[in-house]
């Protein structure tokens, strides 16, 4: 149920205004369409359904053969185990969720604070070699994390950032800033520069003009971009597993992965943790949808 | 006080030279119009004066003080944008109040000023609406009110009437002239509409490809165009230009016609010239001593007058006539020419040769 960054880029500022009717053709195709979409939905949603079922089954039902889709005993014990340790204290998983929230939240905040003004500058000003700079910024996203994780690991060891939340926050910020710049540049481009020109003639400085008149118009775009950055940081696995080791630093994805293996695997706990882990993403994905629809409806300028 | 003087403005966008040494002197309290076709550099000039774009070269002086490096806010100018640039999330009231808020005026002052402006521009009932709830004409008035709410050094207007329909445009023309007169402020107004320029301006600067072609009163620009291009751009229907050369006391047309040589021209014999004739300086109804023969090519009835197209050789002359004029295409015609009001241009340089002898 993760929303990948690639999807985020392509759905960016909603430019495709073709009405759906024309895009998909007439009624004749709709039967095939519905069939394909249904098939796809089943394939995509079955694992989700299975995860949810497993999370509320008792352990003996989890291993039942043939698998039981209905009529098993519903239990919430796994969810309790996600948050509460056997000794009654806070579980390692709940610490991991908290770490994920801190790391994802702070890195998204940093990426937004750094990326939005940069996007504004790239959109508004004549920057030398602008296209090359933008390409360079994007190119940092071309490499899969696995490629750079070893050098970063070595650098982090020298800097003492290994196994620290700050280390993860920095690397996620570094990955989210390019994304924020690119996505926000699209949104800033949509806001006519004349608002700032007019504000400057009203007597504001350029930064005041940006702050008072452009920034409020960017809020839907910023929200959408931040949600995508948040989802990226929340889901990130490779850096998290390589750069952290202790339970009090580790984020949720490696912590959940750590439940699998050993002599026995408590699949109910894994499923319950996964459900808890997926919920924020579901909520945020829903928010993105709302913001993209509200999107960039900026009137008042006749073009 | 409100004088604006720019000297040698140069600005290029990539390979395009938008401004190429523009020099203008806008006197205090004048209605100064910069007229030119699209792409002439009118808006760039205005934005340079406002401080919105950096210049490659040249200086901007406001009230005699060098303001080239000043930020827009420091220049004490107000501007009306072609697309109005009203803040979309703010009401008309907030939009008009913005320049006063930026200058930290008190709420009472702001309320009084907005009220004064809205009654001047008849927009009292629109104040609580947002730009999206306003029509083009209403947005235009609000944008105007936002500029006029302060008393800046000068008002810059970037084709403010272009997006309005014809009726509203004519109405606002009168209104702007009235406002200018009542404020006595300096207006620097940019347009591609020569009717606007001629009807509103004290002074017109004609701009083409980033160069000033001529500066003068509307009458000067119309009656004594500095060059062939200005003559062709100002005036509707456009001036008719006929290739010819002088020979003794005659003008010999490239199409074979002959006219008496105007007394006032100093052009040397044999030099290629263009004879410029405005529609109202020719007639197919009157008889005179100087005339061209041609054939009727077409009629354009315009209600209050009819423009008669007459073909002379391969050239088409546009001649103004009474609305009652009739004729059938192909019919032979004599076009009487008022040579005292004609123009002669050097065909190579385009410069007017009319002034020397007049």
TrEMBL record, chain A:
It is found in: Cell membrane. It is a multi-pass membrane protein. Pfam families: BPD_transp_1. Keywords: Cell membrane, Membrane, Transmembrane, Transmembrane helix, Transport. Residues 1-22 are annotated as: Disordered. The chain crosses the membrane at residues 31-52, 96-122, 134-156, 168-188, 209-234, 267-288. Residues 97-288 form the ABC transmembrane type-1 domain. PANTHER family: ABC TRANSPORTER PERMEASE PROTEIN, MALTOSE TRANSPORT SYSTEM PERMEASE-RELATED. This is ABC transporter permease. The lineage of its organism: Bacteria, Bacillati, Actinomycetota, Actinomycetes, Micromonosporales.
From TrEMBL, chain B:
InterPro entries: AAA+_ATPase, ABC_transporter-like_ATP-bd, ABC_transporter-like_CS, ABC_transpr_MalK/UgpC-like, Mo/tungstate-bd_C_term_dom, NA-bd_OB-fold, P-loop_NTPase, Transp-assoc_OB_typ2. Residues 4-234 form the ABC transporter domain. Pfam families: ABC_tran, TOBE_2. Keywords: ATP-binding, Cell membrane, Membrane, Nucleotide-binding, Translocase, Transport. The keyword Cell membrane applies. The keyword Transmembrane helix does not apply. It comes from the Bacteria. This is ABC transporter permease. It comes from Micromonospora andamanensis.
């Amino acid at each position: 149920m993760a929303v990948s960054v690639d999807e985020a880029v392509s759905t960016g500022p909603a430019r495709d205004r073709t009405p759906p009717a024309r895009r998909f053709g007439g009624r004749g195709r709709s039967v095939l369409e519905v069939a394909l979409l249904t098939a796809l939905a089943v394939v995509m949603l079955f694992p989700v359904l299975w995860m949810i079922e497993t999370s509320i089954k008792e352990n003996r039902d989890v291993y039942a053969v043939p698998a039981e889709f209905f009529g098993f005993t519903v239990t919430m014990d796994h969810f309790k185990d996600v948050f509460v340790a056997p000794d009654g204290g806070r579980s390692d998983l709940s610490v991991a969720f908290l770490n994920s929230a801190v790391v994802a939240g702070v890195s998204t905040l940093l990426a937004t604070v750094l990326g939005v003004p940069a996007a504004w500058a790239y959109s508004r000003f004549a920057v030398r070699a602008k296209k090359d700079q933008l390409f360079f910024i994007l190119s940092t996203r071309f490499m899969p994390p696995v490629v750079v994780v070893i050098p970063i690991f070595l650098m982090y060891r020298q800097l003492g950032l290994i196994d620290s939340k700050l280390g993860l926050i920095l690397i996620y910020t570094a990955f989210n800033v390019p994304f924020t710049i690119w996505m926000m540049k699209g949104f800033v481009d949509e806001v006519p520069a004349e608002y700032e020109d007019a504000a400057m003639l009203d007597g504001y400085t350029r930064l005041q003009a940006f702050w008072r008149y452009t920034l409020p118009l960017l809020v839907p775009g910023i929200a959408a971009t931040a949600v995508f950055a948040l989802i990226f940081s929340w889901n990130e696995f490779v850096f998290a597993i390589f750069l952290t080791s202790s339970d009090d630093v580790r984020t949720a994805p490696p912590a959940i992965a750590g439940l699998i293996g050993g002599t026995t695997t408590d699949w109910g706990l894994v499923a319950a943790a996964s459900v808890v882990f997926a919920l924020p993403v579901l909520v945020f994905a829903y928010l993105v949808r709302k913001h993209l629809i509200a999107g960039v409806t900026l009137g008042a300028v006749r073009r | 006080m409100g004088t604006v003087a720019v000297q040698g403005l140069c600005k290029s966008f990539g390979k395009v030279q938008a401004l190429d040494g523009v020099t203008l002197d806008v006197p205090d309290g004048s209605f100064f119009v910069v007229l030119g076709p699209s792409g002439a550099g009118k808006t760039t000039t205005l934005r340079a004066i406002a401080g919105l774009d950096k210049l490659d070269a040249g200086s901007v002086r406001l009230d005699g003080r060098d303001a080239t490096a000043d930020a827009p806010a420091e220049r004490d100018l107000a501007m009306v944008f072609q697309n109005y640039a009203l803040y979309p999330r703010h009401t008309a009231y907030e939009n008009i109040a913005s320049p006063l808020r930026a200058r930290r005026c008190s709420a009472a002052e702001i309320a009084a000023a907005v009220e004064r402006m809205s009654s001047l521009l008849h927009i009292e009932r629109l104040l609580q609406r947002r730009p999206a709830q306003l029509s083009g004409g209403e947005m235009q008035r609000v944008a105007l009110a936002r500029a006029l709410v302060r008393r800046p050094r000068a008002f810059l207007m970037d084709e403010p009437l272009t997006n309005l329909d014809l009726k509203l445009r004519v109405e606002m023309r009168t209104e702007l002239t009235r406002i200018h007169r009542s404020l006595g402020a300096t207006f620097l107004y940019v347009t591609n509409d020569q009717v606007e320029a001629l009807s509103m301006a004290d002074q017109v600067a004609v701009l083409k490809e980033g160069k000033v072609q001529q500066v003068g009163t509307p009458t000067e620009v119309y009656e004594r165009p500095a060059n062939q291009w200005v003559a062709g751009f100002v005036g509707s229907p456009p001036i008719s230009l006929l290739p010819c050369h002088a020979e003794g006391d005659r003008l010999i047309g490239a199409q074979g016609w002959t006219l008496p040589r105007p007394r006032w021209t100093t052009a040397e014999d044999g030099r290629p010239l263009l004879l410029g004739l405005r529609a109202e300086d020719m007639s197919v109804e009157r008889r005179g001593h100087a005339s061209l023969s041609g054939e009727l090519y077409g009629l354009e009835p315009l209600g209050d007058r009819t423009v008669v197209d007459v073909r002379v050789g391969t050239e088409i002359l546009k001649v103004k006539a009474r609305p009652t004029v009739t004729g059938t295409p192909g019919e032979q015609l004599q076009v009487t020419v008022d040579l005292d009001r004609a123009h002669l241009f050097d065909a190579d340089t385009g410069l007017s040769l009319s002034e020397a002898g007049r």
